[in-house]
Structure to design on (186 residues):
């Protein structure tokens, strides 16, 4: 009985994650909540993080996807999901970078890159800050803010505590927590 409840809970969580990932991705692609404010979309975040980590974007994406697939394989081994569900989830994770990030574990991604979790988190913090600065610069160039406002906003960024690889928030299936700000497909 416990095993059935555990499987049902895992499946429900996985379904919710997939539904939310697709919904946020769609909203982000249409300028919705996934792209509001200073949040970066997943693709831009990964690209910037790769620069900060001094690896190629392809290498970082591969490390994230491999970690997500490994996590799904663990769920199959633990009998949290069956092999058929794993195939579908792997396919979605390989097609949806945001979902792959949600399913992956920070330690596994870092290991796949040959770095520490602290280095991975530092790279993502620096990437989030760089993207926020770029948004301020873009608003200044477009005339949406003046130079004083841009300087003030940039000064405020110095006090901002950016999340690392996992931005926190949504509970993610397979017993993993954390998410990535913004949405978007690769």
């Amino acid at each position: 009985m416990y095993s059935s409840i555990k499987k049902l809970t895992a499946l429900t969580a996985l379904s919710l994650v997939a539904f939310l990932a697709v919904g946020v991705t769609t909203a982000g692609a249409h300028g919705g909540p996934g792209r509001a404010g200073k949040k970066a979309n997943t693709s831009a975040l990964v690209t910037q993080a790769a620069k900060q980590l001094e690896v190629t974007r392809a290498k970082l994406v591969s490390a994230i996807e491999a970690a997500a697939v490994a996590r799904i394989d663990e769920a199959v081994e633990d009998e949290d999901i069956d092999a058929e569900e794993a195939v579908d989830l792997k396919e979605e994770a390989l097609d949806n970078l945001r979902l792959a990030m949600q399913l992956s574990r920070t330690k596994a991604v870092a290991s796949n890159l040959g770095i520490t979790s602290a280095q991975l988190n530092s790279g993502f913090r620096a990437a989030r800050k760089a993207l926020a600065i770029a948004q301020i610069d873009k608003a200044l160039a477009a005339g949406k803010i003046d130079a004083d406002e841009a300087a003030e906003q940039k000064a405020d960024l110095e006090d901002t505590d950016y999340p690392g690889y996992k931005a926190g928030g949504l509970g993610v299936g397979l017993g993993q927590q954390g998410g990535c700000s913004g949405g978007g497909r690769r």
